Amino acid sequence: MTDAQAAILAIRPLAQGYAVLTLDAPVLAAEARPGQFVHVRIPTLEPSRLRRPFSIYSADPATGRLEILYKVVGLGTRHLAALPVGTSLAVLGPVGRPFPLDPAGTPFLVGGGYGVAPLWFLASRLPRKGVLFVGGRTAADILETDRFREAGWEVRVATQDGTLGERGLVTAPLDAALAARPQAELYACGPDGMLRAVGERAIAAGLRAWLSLDKHMVCGVGACLACVQKIRGEGGERLARVCVDGPVFEAREIVW
Ligand SMILES: Cc1cc2nc3c(=O)[nH]c(=O)nc-3n(C[C@H](O)[C@H](O)[C@H](O)COP(=O)(O)OP(=O)(O)OC[C@H]3O[C@@H](n4cnc5c(N)ncnc54)[C@H](O)[C@@H]3O)c2cc1C
Ligand code: FES
């Protein structure tokens, strides 16, 4: 893990409030694994303000470029969105336990909104292609699906208002696919409700599901215990730190 200065090389706005930042971060790009995140200091916030965690969306060791995909939700991300190309950010990372890259069966990736960020990095490093299930409230929450399609992934979309793909929750196309092709390994990133639903399906089907949790973080390096999650392991139940023991956990580990 390093704490390096990384210049913003490019900003690519997506649908409402979402954007992709390209950073010049050679050490991070070389070390990053899918599912890990970076903890970013936003220079126009007061020094006492916390860093903000963002999943690594892509990392290319050859160019030294690393991307994050973010959504403006509050003060920090509003400040991030106002920074021009050339700004230098203090970026700590890569942090956390990555997704494993040895799927037993077809990889089924499940996400929505910015949850698609670690899934794209994962898709680019998995040894085989599979299916992306992507859900959201409306069409604007469905991001970057062409990137997956162009890379040979099958994409199934569901929106709650029916503006893109089928109307309803992402679990509907997932259920249909699980029934048709039971030998799969699941990977998901998104809100807790979605993660829990994906995990329950995997457990019921006897499959593994790797879930990336999204918890409020303070230090991002395991020292403050702001991000704890109850998990079960060989020694019984315990509190794990999502920043360094996660953010990726297997569904059976999580005590909801
Ligand atoms: C491991 C990890 C990976 C993440 N990856 C991404 C990513 O790839 N792209 C992205 O856009 N965001 C990501 N996030 C969430 C991101 O860190 C928060 O959205 C950001 O910190 C909000 O900062 P803010 O100052 O704009 O909002 P704040 O003013 O701090 O909060 C605004 C609103 O967002 C809520 N909020 C803040 N942090 C979180 C959080 N972690 N989870 C859920 N709600 C939150 C607050 O409760 C509040 O309602 C990730 C979070 C974690 C823990
Ligand atoms: S954020 Fe401090 S321990 Fe995880």
Q: Which features does this protein show?
A:
7-stranded antiparallel sheet, 7-stranded mixed sheet, 2 domains, globular, binds flavin-adenine dinucleotide, binds FE2/S2 (inorganic) cluster, 256 residues, Elongation Factor Tu (Ef-tu), domain 3, alpha/beta, Rossmann fold
Order of helices and strands: EEHEEEEHEEHEHEEHEHEEEE
Distance between the termini: 30 Å
Q: What is the CATH homologous superfamily assignment of the largest domain?
A: Nucleotide-binding domain of ferredoxin-NADP reductase (FNR) module
List each distinct ligand once. Answer: flavin-adenine dinucleotide, FE2/S2 (inorganic) cluster
Strand residue percentage: 35-45%
What's the helical proportion of residues?
10-25%
Question: So how many helices?
Answer: 6
- The CATH level-2 architecture of the largest domain is identified as 3-Layer(aba) Sandwich
Outline the biggest β-sheet.
Answer: 7 strands, antiparallel
The number of strands is: 16
CATH topology of the largest domain: Rossmann fold
* Number of domain units: 2
CATH class of the largest domain: Alpha Beta
What is the C-alpha radius of gyration, as a whole number of Å? 18 Å
Overall residue-averaged pLDDT value: 96
Structural class: alpha/beta
What would you call the shape?
globular
Low-pLDDT stretches: none
- Read across the widest sheet, the strand sequence of neighbours is 4-3-7-1-2-6-5
